[in-house]
Write a structure and sequence with these properties.
Blueprint lengths: L1 H13 L4 E6 L7 H14 L3 E5 L2 H7 L4 E3 L27 H13 L4 E6 L1 H23 L5 H6 L4 E6 L15 H22 L2 E6 L6 H10 L3 E3 L10 H14 L5 E6 L12 H12 L3 E5 L11 H21 L7 E6 L2 E6 H16 L3 H8 L1 H14 L14 E7 L6 H14 L3 E5 L2 H7 L2 E3 L27 H11 L4 E6 L1 H12 L11 E5 L15 H18 L5 E7 L6 H10 L3 E3 L7 H16 L4 E7 L8 H11 L5 E6 L11 H23 L6 E6 L2 E6 L3 H4 E2 L4 E2 L8 H8 L5
Parallel strand pairs: 1-2, 1-4, 4-5, 5-10, 6-8, 6-9, 7-8, 12-13, 12-15, 15-16, 16-21, 17-19, 17-20, 18-19
Antiparallel strand pairs: 2-3, 10-11, 13-14, 21-22, 23-24
Helix pairs in contact: 2-11, 3-4, 4-5, 5-12, 7-8, 8-14, 8-23, 9-10, 11-20, 12-13, 13-14, 15-23, 16-17, 19-20, 20-25
The protein binds adenosine-5'-diphosphate (ADP).
Length: 754
């Protein structure tokens, strides 16, 4: 004991830096590793000492080798790994005062008084309790001679930040928990696979997903896969004969031409009286009602596992960075523990216990069968998603309500193909038909509007479009000019088009704007036009994210993960070129998600001096034992320093030390099935666009707009503002919110302050 005490005193004499520790606790979640990496690297960049506590609170209670000092390399190569490399556990000991006393002492031994806890509400509650007890524990430890007084006096308070990692997305204080997006990826992949086999045999499947008190995964999974029915704990099926209603809905779908039927249920699904609904019960009901074989798939732990999605990697990185920034810059000793989370696309800080209480309130409302209240607590976008889902699953459109005039809208795709375009069109078509209106599909983008390839779309014409990539309607980058307008105007008149939805990228926006300019010549253009952003480049004004960008990002990250694996045996430096035209979104975000050393963006340009410095840095890293280098370059970062030029420069300078390989990723970035996020947002935005068009048609108001996501909100911008909001020469918005992540990407890549 005395020796330990002496050591502790000595430690303080030699090391005066702030020390913080990070741990992962409770259920594991993909993205925990990027969070740990960000905490460690940010702390090191601040000049702080940082420790990892292995095996969650149990490691804190046991101390010794479970608490390890981390350096830059300790967290290298972990971004793409699922789970948590520092281990997690459930600790009964930490639930006891004695256990927490031991844990506090172990922190004091290492001079740690700031903690980043990554876990669910249990783990964060535990952290809160430890912080409350801390002053008393310190006093007791001093009084009982277990720690020197000066050590205790130096650490009178414990500073805590909680980061929520949970696949369920069941926590207040953050719109997305770390791991939920990846879990949705697993669910969507599995349900897509199940749908194809179900369609082959005309079968019905019941898929059970995680979520005891939270239907997020089930509901979003159902929207993203175009499932036929969903059962969630917050909103149990209504009416005594819900089973009959479910069977009828599925029967109608079959009659209308669907070959597969999918029911998605959360594990906490229950009826209005709170009685659990089991998957075997659902199967039995469906087998009896449909008179066919029904299969059940319980997805289980696959939902937790595997490579984290690009979103989860970057979410973890942003939150880990912000947590340390808070603890080292803004934290005051008496501050309540905080949760650092995401609101919209912004990082926010909220008192931890408020979040825990609100989170538990939903569970309590469910337990008391106050389902309206539970839905309200989940927030408006959750309820809105549920409504949208109910409309989309209807097998047939509803008749036009009496006294209402039937509207006729046209939908088209424009610009390069973006995954999610079909999802948006399907949702728009069904949401419009559902209200008794008519929809026309224009083939091959604006050229179709010129050529008159326009046909009515029925409920079943868009069946299965939720999940398919590319553009079923056809799309191209044509921007109308000259006599095109005359042809377009004639077709609009001939087909009696009263409103136009353009789901597409830059050229679609430009075409819409030009139509606006041509109104003085062609009165046919006096109709409301609305643009829905769909472009993998994420270069559209008024929307922080466009449909397709998330899928492209995941495509890039998947490819780069493989490229990195291919290089483990040799000393290699990869120069990877990604799309984006003049917008660096994909380059920066994929660089962050894959741990690239350098990212070259057109927004920042490339100078010879930068290149020289970068070559020196990377050469130095290889000399110190580095085995793999990764550089990501936006396709238009610089007209002279092209990917082959940069590769050649690195190759020449790195001769003998490493070899350089270039990879121009090309069209794989545009392809593939849309990611869950793109499917969900496409559906959400389509709903807003349809409402916009129908309202404006009713009011005879031709005001036109483009829609966008600003954080969680969905907003419209007047189409007249298009030129004011963009850098026309480079076809990108003037303000690009994501550039604020630039310093984070840089700091994660380079140990400059060590
Ligand atoms: P999650 O953090 O994923 O919700 P748990 O609820 O299992 O997971 O909590 C993880 C760990 O956090 C527990 O094993 C325990 O050590 C600690 N913990 C949870 N709740 C408390 C509590 N009320 N008091 C002290 N420690 C707690």
């Amino acid at each position: 004991m005395l020796e330990e005490k002496n050591n502790m005193t000595q430690n303080h004499e030699t090391r005066q830096q702030t020390r913080l520790a990070v741990l992962t606790s409770g259920g594991d979640a993909p993205g925990m590793n990027s969070t740990v990496r960000a905490v460690v690297r940010t702390a090191l960049s601040y000049g702080a000492e940082v420790y990892a506590i292995y095996e969650g609170y149990q490691g804190m209670v046991d101390g010794g080798d479970y608490i390890r000092r981390m350096n830059w390399e300790s967290v290298g190569g972990i971004l793409q790994r699922g789970g948590t490399v520092i281990g997690t556990a459930r600790s009964a000991a930490f639930r006891t005062p004695e256990g927490r006393r031991k844990a506090a002492k172990n922190l004091l031994i290492h001079d740690i008084d700031r903690l980043v806890v990554i876990g669910g509400d249990g783990s964060l509650t535990g952290a809160h309790i430890l912080r409350q007890e801390w002053p008393q524990i310190v006093t007791d430890l001093i009084a009982q001679g277990e720690i020197p007084a000066e050590v205790g006096n130096r650490h009178p308070h414990l500073g805590i930040v909680g980061l929520v990692a949970s696949i369920d997305n069941d926590f207040f204080g953050t719109d997305m928990t770390i791991g939920a997006d990846t879990a949705l990826h697993r669910i969507v992949d599995a349900v897509d696979a199940i749908s194809s086999t179900a369609a082959s045999h005309q079968r019905t499947f019941v898929v059970k997903v995680m979520g005891r008190n939270c239907g997020y995964l089930a509901l979003m999974g159902a929207i993203a896969t175009g499932a036929d029915w969903v059962l969630i704990p917050e909103n149990p099926p209504k009416g005594l004969d819900w089973e009959k209603h479910m069977v009828e809905r599925l029967q109608k779908g079959r009659k209308a031409g669907r070959r597969d039927s999918i029911v998605i249920m959360a594990e906490g699904a229950c009826d209005q009286d709170g009685n659990p609904i089991g998957s075997s019960y659902v199967r039995q009901v469906l087998e009896e009602g449909l008179q066919e074989e029904v299969r059940v798939t319980v997805l289980g732990h696959v939902q937790r596992g595997g490579r984290p999605s690009a979103f989860d990697r970057n979410l973890g990185t942003r939150l880990g960075y912000a947590a340390v920034q808070y603890l080292l810059e803004s934290y005051r000793p008496k501050d309540e523990p905080q949760v650092v989370g995401l609101r919209g696309n912004r990082v926010v800080t909220t008192p931890l216990m408020d979040c825990v209480k609100q989170t538990q309130a939903v569970a309590q409302q469910i337990a008391q069968h106050n389902y309206d209240q539970a839905m309200k607590l989940r927030g408006s976008s959750f309820s809105e998603s549920f409504d949208t889902f109910l409309t989309l699953i209807r097998a047939e459109p509803r008749p036009l309500p009496k006294g209402e005039k039937r509207a006729r809208i046209a939908v088209l795709n424009a610009g390069a193909p973006a995954p999610g375009m079909n999802t948006a069109i399907r949702a728009a078509v069904r949401l419009c038909l559902d209200q008794g209106h008519e929809v026309l599909g224009v083939r091959n983008g604006i050229t179709g509007l010129i050529a008159g390839t326009i046909q009515p779309l029925e409920w079943m014409s868009v069946n299965g479009w939720t999940t398919s990539g590319g553009s079923e309607l056809g799309t191209n980058r044509y921007v109308p000019d000259g006599t095109d307008f005359y042809a377009m105007a004639r077709n609009i008149e001939e087909h009696n088009i009263q409103g136009l939805l353009i789901v597409g990228g830059w050229s679609g926006y430009e075409a819409a704007y030009r139509m606006l300019q041509e109104r003085k010549h062609f009165p046919a253009f006096d109709i409301p036009i609305v643009c829905l952003p769909a472009s993998i480049d994420n270069n559209l004004p008024g929307s922080e994210l466009s449909i397709g960008a998330d899928t492209a990002l995941n495509n890039i990250v998947g490819a780069v993960d493989k490229i990195k694996q291919s290089a483990v045996a040799a000393r290699r430096c990869f120069v990877v070129e990604v799309m984006g035209r003049y917008c660096g979104y994909l380059a920066l975000m994929s660089g962050m998600a894959t741990g690239a050393e350098r990212v070259y963006l057109h927004e920042e340009g490339i100078t010879l001096r930068d290149l020289q410095q970068d070559i020196e840095d990377i050469t130095h890293d290889f000399q110190s034992g580095k085995r793999l280098g990764l550089i990501i370059r936006n396709e238009n970062a610089n007209a002279v320093y092209t990917t082959p030029v940069i590769s050649a420069l690195f190759e020449e300078e790195g001769r003998g030390l490493f070899v350089v390989r270039q990879a121009i990723l090309g069209h794989l970035q545009q392809g593939g099935d849309p990611s869950p996020f793109d499917r969900i947002q496409a559906t959400r935005m389509a709903r807003y666009c349809v409402t916009y068009l129908l309202d404006h048609i009713k009011e005879h108001d031709a005001q036109s707009a483009f829609i966008g996501m600003q954080g969680k909100e969905i907003l419209f911008h007047n189409l007249e503002d298009f030129p004011r909001m963009v850098d026309e020469a480079h076809q990108r918005p003037r303000q690009q919110w994501w550039m604020e992540m630039r310093p984070i990407a840089r700091q994660m890549a380079k140990p400059d302050m060590q």
